[in-house]
Amino acid sequence: MNLISLCLSVFLPYVSSLALCLRFGAKKICEVINQSLILTSGFILGSIISLGLIGLPITTPYIGTLILFYLVGSIFIFFTSPPRFYLKRFTHVFKSLIPLEILQICLSCIAIAACGVTVILFQGDFPDAYSYHSEPVIGWIQERSLFVEPFDQWRAGKYYPKVGEIFFFWMAIFSNNWLLADLGNMISYLLGASSLYTIARIYSGASRLQALLSVNLFLFTPLVVAQTTNLAVDITLATFFWASISAALYLTRALDLFSVIIFSTSAGLMMGTKYSGLPLTVLSGTLIIFIMILKRNIQRDL
User: Cβ distance 45 to 66 under 8 Å?
Assistant: First the structure.
């Protein structure tokens, strides 16, 4: 798993960034490498923030990779570009990340506090239908650690790394209403539909009727309908997938650092929601590379 994470954190973001820079007019080799390093840092930082967004520890290869990229990038940019250029780029990256850092801190505090309150109030006495998601979180609190470990005695804890467990867990904490938690997937239901509509309407050139038809095909898929009123994380995973695809398509039209961070945050949450999010993240990044190559070939033919 660490090898997969390392490959995702190094190869895919850098190649995607390289394709974007070539697509948007960076011609000198120093410009291509400079911009690729900066965008890759945005990709990795976004994934770090989202993987740690709801209390997971930052003990992944992303941290080491980020430090490596900044060190190599700083040395290279220092010797190939004016100091003003580097300072401007670094400041832009830093300012873009401040809101996400604040969001990470707030959500992490809320998640940990909510888990603690739950243990105190209910003392581990949960309905059977809810124990699937409560056991891993209570275990994390009892162990005084949020490290992701494949505990055999916890069904949901076997998956990597299950950010979705904490998301559902704190939704019904203060109301003591399990129905509220069951309806948590309705949020993903609506967000996934809006992301899919954006993809169909704006990026695919579909008519409004065709876009609505594609949304309905998604919303009324039997699996989607079945999970809109329970605690399964598959719909949440699908929502982050459509969001990352939408952001990836936007990146192929306009190179924007904030969109890079949105894409990587969606991808990081997708990886954190369920183990199957890892190959889906690869698919999202591969889409960027494929479209970049396709557009470049079309422009060359013209």
Answer: yes
**Cα–Cα distance between 180 and 219 in angstroms, integer?**
20
Residue 150 has a CB neighbour count (10 Å cut-off) of: 11
CB 148 within 8 A of CB 56: yes
Q: Residue 68 is encoded by which pair of tokens?
A: 């490596």
Q: Across all residues in the chain, what is the average pLDDT?
A: 63
How far from 159 is each of 107, 123, 271, 272, CA to CA, in Å?
Answer: 22, 24, 11, 10
Alpha carbon distance 154, 133 (integer Å):
9
pTM confidence score = 0.60
pLDDT one-digit tens code per residue, 107-153: 555 655 655 565 555 555 555 445 555 555 555 555 544 444 444 44
Are 239 and 191 in contact, with CB atoms under 8 Å apart?
Answer: yes
How many C-beta neighbours within 10 Å does residue 130 have? 17
CA distance 38 to 19: 13
How crowded is residue 185: how many other Cβ atoms within 10 Å of its Cβ? 24
Number of H helices and E strands in the chain, helices first, is 13, 0
Distance (Å, rounded) from C-alpha 10 to C-alpha 14?
6
